[in-house]
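My main concern about presentation is that the manuscript never shows what a single data entry looks like. An entry of this sort, consisting of the sequence and the corresponding C-alpha cells, reads as follows:
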Amino acid sequence: MRHSFVSLLSDSGVPLEDIARLVGHSGTAVTEAVYRKQIRPVLLGGAEVMDRIFS
C-alpha cells in the first residue's frame, strides 16, 4: 500500500520532500530508493492491453 501511495503521489507531481514527510521518513533517500516506483507506465500498459482485448 505504501508503494502505491508514494508512486501515485510522485506521478501526480507531489515533491519528493513532501512525500517523504507524509510517509514518515526523515529524509528523501529511503523514499527515492525503496518506495518511489513509476506506476503510471504499468497502468497505461495494462490499459492498452485491455483496449486491444475489448475493442
